[in-house]
Amino acid sequence: MSTKITVIGAGNVGATCANVLAMRNVSSEIVLLDVKQGISEGKSIDIMQSAALLGINTRIKGVTDDYQATAGSDVVIITSGIPRKPGMTREELIGVNAGIVKSVVESVLAHTPAPIIIVVSNPMDTMCYLTTKISGLPRHKVLGLGGALDSARFKYYLSKALNVNLNMIEATVIGGHGDTTMVPLVSLATCKGVPVTSLLSKEILDEVVASTKVGGATLTGLLGTSAWYAPGAAAAMMAEAILKDHQSIIPCGVLVEGEYGQNDLAIGVPVLLGKNGWEKIIDFPLTAAEKEAFIASADATRKVNQVLETIKF
Prior knowledge:
By secondary structure, the protein is of the alpha/beta class. It has nine helices and 14 strands. The chain folds into two domains: 143 residues, NAD(P)-binding Rossmann-like Domain (Rossmann fold, 3-Layer(aba) Sandwich), CATH 3.40.50.720; 164 residues, Lactate dehydrogenase/glycoside hydrolase, family 4, C-terminal (L-2-Hydroxyisocaproate Dehydrogenase, Chain A, domain 2).
């Protein structure tokens, strides 16, 4: 079956996402769009030439600010916005990125009325909330990247502590996609089915959690800009789970309506991903401490969302 994915923003994250999608043959067609002349065109040609070497069948087209080319997209991945710079909080990005995301969403919907939208732009939870509200789409058609990426980082630090292949780790992060708001679920993390709490001391697990929470900031400090390989791959994985109807449980930012005790808030929770977007929110058992941390995360995320009320679009 012919499918189409549009990636908005051909920067490091968007181009990486398009490349991963192509290498995994997720979709028959990918449109890579950017506002800067030549960037998306050049990167799409580069990816296509690598596809020629690897026997990939995906067709990739790069366009400059031409939303007509996005018509008929099944999934739209929004990476647009300025990246987080060293010392900059995700909250500080709101003023600029909210305007960018609003414009992108309106332009996409003018040509494709009901796509599934994956939001990568930071601050991700707030941009996911904004997208859900302004798009008018059913909430199951809008997802934020955060939980998928943060869980990958949690698995990485657990694998380092255990000195095992990270694919042996099962671990989940819920809550806001922020250095102080994410909630790594230590109680549910396992290595080949064995709880990590029986394999690592509390002190080491505390260090793993702390490293996970500042995972993005750590990379920003090293790179001088936001990370891109893992964020791009995480967005591509989410799109693949949707288009191939994997029925995978992946933590994503979604609008909750009573689930996990919260309302009118986009925040990371475990969801079942399939052909309709996120199809069900999964109720994971949390410890009392994890519940308390999630409530604090929700309160902090809601406070950030209040900044949207002060923005004049």
